[in-house]
Amino acid sequence: MSDVSGESDVSGGPQGDLPEAAVRRLEATGFSSGLTVPDFAACLELGLEPVALVQGFCVMQWGWYGPGSGYMRGVSPFAVGSQDAGAYTETYQCPHGFVSAEHRTWGQNLEQPWVESAWAQGFGTAYARMVEEAQQHGAHGIIGVVDRVGNVADTGTTEFHFLGTAVTVGDGPAPAGGVPWSTYLAGQRLTKSIEAGFMPVAVVASMASVRVWAYCMTEYLMEGNYNWTPTRPVPVDQVGRAHMAVRQLARKHVRQQLAGDELHGAVLDVVYRELSQGDEVVDCTLRGNRMRRFKDYDEVALPRPTVRLG
User: Are 112 and 67 in contact (CB under 8 A)?
Assistant: First the structure.
């Protein structure tokens, strides 16, 4: 803006052409937020004051490594729910004997720990950068966290992007260890969780990956060539067990991050990539809010029925 003489003036003085309210708005300390209007209002009611929109970013690249590679952990068969430190693997043998050189007499479901480790490193790095930016703003926590994970190119390169709204808690104490807490929740969902006695600690996530090398039966069934029992549905055991195992592994990895706390608002995503002749890779991602109880739940009084006469 400029006055009659052409000189810039936003001071709101006699020569300025800005209203007083506009001058106060321009001189005030602004903030950015990723919250919707209802979430913003609910957070203010809760005593949270937005400070800044914070983010973290990381790009990871990893290749594919086959059995026997030095990048693999030693594998050993185990029940997925056990405490065995080895990776999950199951082996399948052909029931037909030798048929031909092209006949698949062997198959295996194999956990891919190098993929899981690379994913965890990329996710953790992007998250740590978002938290570091929130610390620079003096935030107590980060709400409404959104994480996006996607492939940059079809070369095993994956980008991790975190976005959240850093907030302060009125005159509340500094977070433990100076590290802000974080949660995917915001607005009414966050308010109800705190009213119920649960305080967010951090967002947690894990990815489990299982590679399926199909043996003859799986190959036939996945290609629709198994016609010996046309009147009866036939389960594809190897693929079914791989999908079950990858979900259980993702839960196991997240459980290790909770350290006795609870997981709220869990979201489980499963994607699979078909390779060839029944082979596929199954990836399962589990996300949620690590919550810690700080008070007992206040029970709501039961409603009293009312009957109106007349």
Answer: no
Residue 210 region, left (φ>0) first, then alpha (ψ -120 to 50), else beta?
beta
- Between CA 126 and CA 118 the distance in angstroms is 12
Q: Is the pTM of this model over 0.85?
A: no
Distance of CA 180 to the CA centre of its chain: 18
Q: Mind listing the pLDDT tens digit for each residue in 221-262? A: 777 665 555 556 778 888 889 999 999 999 999 999 999 899
Q: Retrieve residue 79's tokens.
A: 């029940």
User: What Å distances lie between residue 8 and 3, 13, 23, 32, CA to CA?
Assistant: 6, 12, 13, 27
Q: Are 180 and 134 in contact (CB under 8 A)?
A: yes
DSSP 3-state of 102: coil
The CA-to-CA distance between both ends of the chain, in Å, stands at 68
> What domains lie within the chain, and their CATH numbers?
35-293 (3.30.110.70)
* Residue 167 amino acid letter: V
d(CA 129, CA 58): 9
pLDDT in tens, 37-94: 888 888 888 889 898 899 999 998 866 554 444 444 433 333 343 334 467 888 887 7
* Residue 61 in tokens: 């690249």
